[in-house]
Amino acid sequence: MKAKNHMSREVISIPPWESLGKAKALMRSGNFRHLPVVDEGKLVGILSDSDIRCHGHLDATIDQAMTPNPLTIESTVTLEQAARLMLERKVNALPVLANKRLVGIISTSDIVAAFLAAAKSNEIAELLRRPIGHGHMDF
Fold this sequence. Notes:
The chain is of the alpha+beta class.
């Protein structure tokens, strides 16, 4: 399972000079918790809802609260590799790059959903492998 198949592709990003208030409103309206910070087409940081809460001043600019030079993955990385990296580095989202260009973002929620879907598929496959209707039926 590759990250590119489970990431959010329609990435909403924000420039570093915007206010934390604008970022908070954008996150709330889109129901997500992380925003890649992009300046002139280049990923320069990532902003989380906890960054906003910790900073406290919604009139401050994003570059004052963001994590600069965020940890990223390539779109060809497996979900297992992404999950391990997130656990090791204690991050909840990773911008996804292809040829150094931002093409998506993957969060812990995306990974958990993919693993649950895979587990469900395995359960269904196991049920389909079981024999049905063998022996006598007692009524």
